[in-house]
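Researcher: Please translate sequence to structure tokens.
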Amino acid sequence: MREDEKFQIIWENAQKMPEMEKVMFYELERKKLVVGLLLVVFLFAGAGLIYAGKAVKGTILMLVDAILLAIFLSLRGFGPISPAETFGSASLILIPLLLALYVYAGWDVRKVIDEYNERLYVTVFDRSLP
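Model: Translation complete:
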């Protein structure tokens, strides 16, 4: 189901709800920023985006994150290839890239969740068509 269709159904159902039920529905359906950021920090970088509703972008970021981590660990000597002495210091170049990826993912998760929650709020509590 596309996001526009989802919000259309939410709007149609919200027109029939009393105000207290709308508040409860909004609190249950909104995305929590803390959950999204924890997924970014403790799982792969794209996990928070998948939670926020951007599955394709989140999957791409997860793949990039997994590839960078695999290269980093292989160059450090933890993988099937063990050139730890030769490429150990060269792998340190990947640390700023990994940190930048996680910072970008966290920033993007915050933006996407804020946009989703704002659109959900307007859809549930506004009387005009979404």
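Researcher: Any highlights?
Model: The radius of gyration is 20 Å.
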